[in-house]
Amino acid sequence: MISHADLGWQSLSPDIDSLVRLFRDAGIPTEVHNTLQGRAKLVTIDPGFWGKAAAVAAANRIRWCAVWGEHCPPQIHIFAALAGRDGHLLLETMVADRQAELPSQTPFFPAANRPERYLQDMFGVRFFDHPDKRRWIRHQAWQEGQYPLLKTFSLAGSPEDMTPPDCLYPFVPVEGEGVYEIPVGPVHAGIIEPGHFRFQAMGEDILSLEEHLGYVHKGIEKCAEGRDVRGLARLAGRVSGDSTVAHTWAACQACEAAVGITLPRRALAIRAILAERERIANHLGDIGACCNDVGFTFAQAQCSRLRELWQRQNSDVFGHRLLMDVVVPGGVSRDLDARQIEVLNKAIEQLRHELQDLLPLLYEYPSLQDRLRATGVLSLKKARSLGVLGFLARASGECWDLRRDAPYGPYDDMVITVPHTLEGDASGRLRIRGDEILVSLDLLEEMLKKLPSGEVRVEFPVVSGDCRGIGLVEGWRGEILAYVHLDAAGAVSRYFPRDPSWLNWPALEAMIEGVIVPDFPLCNKSVNGSYSGHDL
Amino acid sequence: MTEKVPPPDQTVMELGSACQKEIARIFGKSLAIRMVDAGSCNGCELEMHALNNGFYDIERFGIHFVASPRHADLLLVTGPVARHMQAALKGTYDATPNPKLVIAMGDCGADGGEFGVSYASCGAVANVIPVDAVIRGCPPTPLQLMQGILELLRGR
Question: Which of A149, A191, A242, A536 should one mutate to test binding to chain B, selecting the residue with the greatest count of B CBs within 10 A?
Fold first, then answer.
């Protein structure tokens, strides 16, 4: 039985200062630094304590967010992000770039599994105690023993004319009489990004699913190196096209923190208006698509109509149907005049009116709910151990939301409602997304009403020295983290975007056991991980 | 739960009907599209989806998306081609029966876009398979897509 206290789990996790004290009490020497700007505290620890720090954090209800590296020859700096009640702590350590080794955090945080394997493939860091030593992001485009994110590896690399297909990835086999294997992808049947799913099934029941991603790895991080901040913002807007606002905001936030500029409140409000509009557009599209995957095409027709109207308004008011490149370093590229505010307000009213009829129907329609309820259940325990994010987590009772828990302007002076439920099934996820649209509509209305006067953009200053910053934004999929290091000339020397999909993809594997094969598309859509945002 | 039917969108009707005429001339009755995301950010896919919403509803003009390249007349390819997708794209092309058309969609499909050519990216779709037409944009809008398909058909 899950008690109410379980739901408020994150409020019981320590604040960041207490976590640092817990590390020290456990005999881990920590040094607090101010060499990285943004809404996170940075501490450095000795590499030997990397695993122990994770053990202490895991024992104290800390959420594991990310791990990434940066090559500063002859060392590789490794960062891990942890979240407590009041925000984020970044752990930093250094290892030699030759024979880089580090204790794994995966035994304490299963969420670290794939991110550590990504580091292994991209930097050559060996994580001892890691339960899974297989490669993760590397297919056949570069050789084993070559590490693209080392500074000695050129952006061009030395690829062959024809990269062979990755046929020999060692999937975990399932044996037994009547067990069969279904390989799916990378080219799927629908209009969808590429990835490979390997099912082990018995009759219609799925025994296990293993994901093999990395097909759309296009070298985003390497591509970022040497760009100016405007070029970085354009690239960040294409990490995952459906989250263009949130990723650009996170990258810009990191750059702006690094150089220490404060944005006008009007710029922040317009960024949030864009972000909430992005949340609504994606939720509308996916609610329709989830229903379509169980043959309820009426919802698809309605939701895609509403989404199209919303996108057309994006184009009319902000100049782009998906809102690309509206967020820029120093602010936003578009202001709103009185007429546009009126038009936006009218659309909020209309959408709310339409959803008043549509959402209750979807939440209660028996033949639809019959397919959604108890399908693809992700338990609270599992969601927590995998560190899942966004609506996926909130549908399983885990209710982190940076807009409320680690707020940034303009959310820092707003009351944010975070819908959540304990069902953890496809029905719960659909309802959370519907409810989040309603919350976003309220937020939009409030922001348009209280839109501060002033500028929407400040000049991004000439960088006066090497600087680093962190950006943290609640995208529609969940928490997005961006790390940016600018060199003394103002060029990007490292950009790392952590899309929430890194933590949400493993949840799909977890929820699929015992689900029948025909329900997989629904489960996949109800999670909707980004392939591009994950593969980088 | 039934909204008022809006007046027909003349631009969509004209583009769609023109496509239909060309499709009748070249393929008989319909144009079957297999999409291949070879490395896109997913922006192009969102706009491709939009072609199926009630405003464009391209199926009424004889254009539809199919699940297999074996059933396709046209490959609509997005993304800079990730090297990890190179073999799959080539395989999909080879599996599509002749006569076949290929459109490279979006700025990335056209020339690699923001990602260019690198250790991980082959850049333009034309670097991997023969391309008959390019539809630029980041991403191209549904109308630009229809326009691009029409121009390709008219040239055949």
Answer: A191
Would you say A166 and A139 are in contact if contact means Cβ atoms under 8 Å apart?
yes
Q: Which of A140, A142, A166 faces B119 most closely, judged by CB atoms?
A: A142
Q: Using a CB-CB distance cutoff of 8 angstroms, which residues of chain A are in contact with residue B39?
A: 215-216, 218, 532
Which amino acid type is present at position A238?
A: R
- Chain-centroid distance of CA A425 in Å reads 20
Report chain B residues whose CB lies below 8 A from the CB of A165.
Answer: 87-88, 91
Question: Do the chains contact at A163 and B46, CB–CB below 8 Å?
Answer: no
Please name the residues in contact with A86: beta carbons below 8 A apart, sequence gap of 6 or more.
A15, A16, A405, A406
Q: Do B43 and A324 touch (CB under 8 A)?
A: yes
Asked if the structure places residue B4 within a domain, the reply is no
Tell me what the pLDDT averaged over chain A comes to: 95
What is the rounded CA–CA span in Å between residue A106 and residue A131?
A: 8
Q: The pTM is what?
A: 0.97
pLDDT single digits (tens) B9-27: 999 999 999 999 999 999 9
Instruction: Please state, in angstroms and rounded to a whole number, the distance separating the CA atoms of residues A319 and B60.
Output: 29
Residue of B56, B85, B108, B117 to mutate when probing chain A, most A C-beta within 10 A = B85
Is position B6 within any domain?
no
A129-176 pLDDT tens trace: 999 999 999 999 999 999 999 999 999 999 999 999 998 999 998 889
Alpha-carbon gap, residue A134 to A148, rounded angstroms: 17
d(CA B61, CA B27): 13
Domain count, chain B: 1
Which of B40, B128, B88 is CA-nearest to residue A192? B40
Nearest Cα residue to B55 out of B1, B24, B11: B11
- Please tell me which of the candidates A140, A218, A301 has its beta carbon nearest to residue B80: A218
State in Å, rounded, how far the first CA of chain A is from the last one: 40
Query: Does B94 fall in a domain?
Result: yes
The answer to whether the CB atoms of A242 and B42 lie below 8 A apart is: yes
CB-CB: which of B43, B45, B138 is closest to A191?
Answer: B45
Q: Is the peptide bond before A186 cis (omega within 30 degrees of 0)?
A: yes
Structure confidence at residue A105 (pLDDT) = 98
**Domains present along chain A, CATH in parentheses:** 10-128 (3.30.460.80), 181-212 (no CATH)
- Residue B46: inside a domain: yes
B105: CATH: 3.40.50.12280
Average pLDDT over residues A486-503: 97
Pick the closest to residue A232 from A216, A250, A215 (CA basis): A250
- Domain, as residue range, for B36: 27-154
Q: Per residue in A366-411, pLDDT tens?
A: 999 999 999 999 999 999 999 999 999 999 999 899 999 999 999 9
ipTM of the complex: 0.96
